[in-house]
User: Fold this.
Amino acid sequence: MNPIPVIMDVDTGIDDAMSLLFAVRHPGIELRAVTCVAGNTGVDQVAANTRYVLDAAGAPDIPVARGSARPMLVPPADASHVHGADGLGGFSRPSDRRMSPLPAVELLRRELMGAVGTGERITLVPSAPLTNIALLLRTHPEVAAGIERIIFMGGSASGGNATAAAEFNIWHDPEAAAIALTAAGDLDIPVTMYGLDVFNDVVVTRDEAAALRSGLDPAAQLAGSLIRFACDIFGQDEATIGDAGTVCAVVDPDGLTTQRFGVRVELGNGFARGQTLVDRRTWTGDHKADPHSTKPTMIDVALAVDGRRYADLWLTTIGG
Ligand code: RIB
Ligand code: CA
Assistant:
């Protein structure tokens, strides 16, 4: 089969790094571009981390572009308590890889319109706040013709991590998430939500991480070190590959169980801000009586994942 063309939007990030390493190494993915956004750490650090991870993976000259340095409305709030001060568990190193001269939205537009020109459709894999994606879809709706599907890490049908209600990527920029999902619905772009309902179910053990670190491959060594860092942060003997589950789903969609629901994002300033409200109601009478006029975007919400299947896929891809 021809490799699937993919563009990733990241806030590298321990698990964004695990996702990038997989995307570069798996023969079923052709990574066309990577765009960076503020999230786990500042956007310039995200860009530095991303370029270093691509170096470790031995990636070809894949364009990397800088995107939004902050959410649409509220100030950025990093996740250094999870990803470390540099966003990469202290493993970030300088890279000679150059940044694209284009801002993220323009790089995305050019790559996606290029795909339209060649009759291709690119799978967009955001694993970060959706600020860049919201700006892209509302500024250049024409790119929809070049998008096969958006598979994003974010949201949850069952409680949050950044807050009791909201998952970090959505909580960081709820307005962007609402805009991106509404625009995707308006533009009929298929969307898969890889949220907290599956995020923590694909885990790798300390021993498996040690095996990765024991080799001479810089990508495997980095991956093993990141898993060990995550185990130490959470005081566990195993750690999730997090964002990397999205790219596993690109090459092995049968490992994921999804169901189609209407999804809205809570934008109020209360305890539920940033919650993804997954509408599980099935009776049309409820929907007809619903006082909320805004039509939710219909999204394929991941409800279950074969964790061992994706963990083994990730380990064999990174471990060689
Ligand atoms: O909630 C988990 C998400 O927030 C992941 O994408 C992680 O990298 C952080 O960005
Ligand atoms: Ca991320």
Q: What stands out?
A: The chain is about 40% helix and 20% strand.
